[in-house]
Design brief:
By secondary structure, the chain is of the alpha/beta class. The protein has a single domain, classed as Luciferase-like domain (TIM Barrel, Alpha-Beta Barrel), CATH 3.20.20.30. It is 37% helix and 15% strand. The chain is built from 13 helices and 13 strands. The strands form three sheets. It has an eight-stranded parallel beta barrel, surrounded by six helices. It has a two-stranded antiparallel sheet with strand order 5-6. It has a two-stranded antiparallel ribbon with strand order 7-8. Strand 1, helix 1 and strand 2 form a beta-alpha-beta unit. The structure holds flavin mononucleotide. Flavin mononucleotide binds next to strand 3, strand 4, strand 10 and helix 9. Belongs to the NtaA/SnaA/DszA monooxygenase family. One of its GO terms (molecular function) is oxidoreductase activity.
């Protein structure tokens, strides 16, 4: 077998509700993807035409104490991630299906079973985005969101139980031999008998054995403990970086931590988020971006970003054209990484709230506006200089934003030899060029 190497990765980020997020009122935007499966089916068709490796479904289950706070944004409702992916497994053929499930509000047995079932249904295309969750304990019998350090400790043990359960039925265990009457080979079935700080799980897993043996693990932690988890178990790693130097520093740090676990570039694909506005010309791209800005609810977006990054001030209340001044910012228990990213940028560049809206999505991801060539230059530059292994494309418009990217940017990425022109692998793991981490 040849040694796997670093290859370019391209993922698509779709939220579980209206995929276009904040500018949902712009002409042509779908507004019913949260209840209409056909919308997702069509997006995934387009993304397969664009030879994306995977789609990634974000998820959270935060309490909403004041429904008025979400009255103008399509944050609610949200599909159950793995139910939606199971339906997409049937309508798609090649693309990887990565869903989010939190280690704070689930049991590892249930997640191991759910992801194994998706892997089998999709012929080996399942991935699990491991999150400790940015909030939501109040919906799960907890008085508040558990502490950051505890969440990560539980996450490590959770993932070990899940992978242990996936390994609990070795390949070849299922005989189904009518003649001998042997259904399975007991020597190839291994109970887990795990007893740890958080979990006590006997095993083996009662689920169809995953086609990939181990479905792909995605992670996005970016605080110290978050990076440690990503470095130890993450294969696709999502991040938010605003310039190539920051991207390189982040990637070098994660690779350094990964080396302590005997893992290297071949084992991880680090994908910053990127929100593109691509046009036939600069003017066309800019017109699309201006349409987005026109329909963006500026107050809501700034409020969302301020809360998401725990800035301690509400930028929507700040004069739109006055440089932002931040006082002391208390460290958050939620999105630590996003907080430092935005805080550092504000301190360094002294942007106005209007600049913030032009640079970042509400979720704190970088916006890029340009022709296919300009966008491919940017993507290629980050990839070739080790600032990223590819990108997680955050569509701010659907279906047109997806269609534009596939029609304009994808051929340019293919011409440069970055992106495949056809799927070469059968499974998500193969298409990402990742090694098989399962023990024999
Ligand atoms: C692209 C991307 C997607 C993420 N998706 C989710 C998600 O679906 N659910 C969630 O609770 N957190 C999600 N996160 C947040 C991370 O899991 C993590 O909490 C965050 O990056 C902060 O890192 P830290 O917990 O190490 O401070 C995402 C982060 C990024 C960059």
């Amino acid at each position: 077998m040849t040694e796997p190497k670093r290859t370019f990765a391209l993922g698509a980020y779709l939220t579980g509700s209206a995929t276009n997020g904040d500018a949902w009122r712009a002409p042509g935007e779908d507004v019913d993807a949260d209840i209409t499966f056909a919308r997702y089916r069509d997006y995934v068709d387009l993304l397969e035409q664009g030879r994306f490796d995977s789609i990634f479904l974000y998820d959270n289950v935060l309490p909403v104490p004041d429904p008025a706070a979400v009255a103008d944004t399509p944050a609610l409702p949200r599909w159950d991630t793995f139910t939606l992916l199971a339906a997409l497994a049937v309508t798609s053929r090649h693309i990887g299906l990565i869903g989010t499930a939190s280690t704070s509000f689930n049991e590892p047995y249930n997640i191991a079973r759910r992801v194994a079932s998706l892997d089998r249904l999709s012929g080996g295309r399942a991935g699990w985005n491991v999150v400790t969750a940015t909030g939501g304990g109040e919906n799960f019998n907890l008085p508040r969101h558990p502490d950051h350090a505890d969440r990560y400790e539980r996450a490590h043990e959770f993932v070990d139980v899940v992978t242990g359960l996936w390994d609990s039925i070795a390949p070849g265990a299922l005989l189904r031999d009518k003649r001998s009457g042997r259904w399975l080979d007991p020597a190839l079935v291994r109970p887990l008998n795990h007893k740890g700080r958080f979990f006590s799980v006997a095993g083996p897993l009662n689920a169809p054995p995953p086609v990939q043996r181990r479905p792909v693990l995605a992670q996005a932690g970016a605080s110290g403990p978050g990076r440690d988890l990503a470095a130890r178990i993450g294969e696709v790693i999502y991040t938010a970086e605003y310039d190539p130097a920051a991207g390189r520093a982040y990637r070098a740090d994660v690779l350094d931590r990964a080396a302590r676990h005997g893992r290297g570039e071949a084992h991880l694909r680090i994908l910053p988020g990127l929100a593109p506005f691509v046009g036939e010309s600069d003017d066309d791209a800019r017109a699309k971006f201006e349409t987005y800005l026109r329909y963006l609810d500026h107050g809501d977006s700034l409020r969302g970003l301020s809360a998401y990054a725990s800035l301690g001030v509400d930028l929507s209340a700040w004069p739109r054209d006055r440089p932002i001044e931040l006082g002391e910012v208390a460290e958050t228990n939620s999105h630590k990484s996003r907080q430092s990213l935005i805080v550092d940028w504000i301190r360094r560049d002294r942007p106005t709230p209007r600049d913030v809206l032009r640079h970042f999505t509400r979720g704190g991801h970088r916006i890029i506006v340009g022709t296919a060539r300009e966008i491919a230059d940017d993507i290629e530059g980050w990839y070739r200089t080790g600032a990223a292994d590819g990108f997680n494309i955050m569509f701010t418009s659907a279906p047109d934003g997806i269609r534009d990217f596939v029609r304009l940017a994808v051929p340019e990425l293919q011409r440069r030899g970055l992106l495949r022109t056809d799927y070469t692998g059968r499974t998500l793991r193969e298409n990402l060029g990742l090694p098989d981490p399962a023990t024999p």
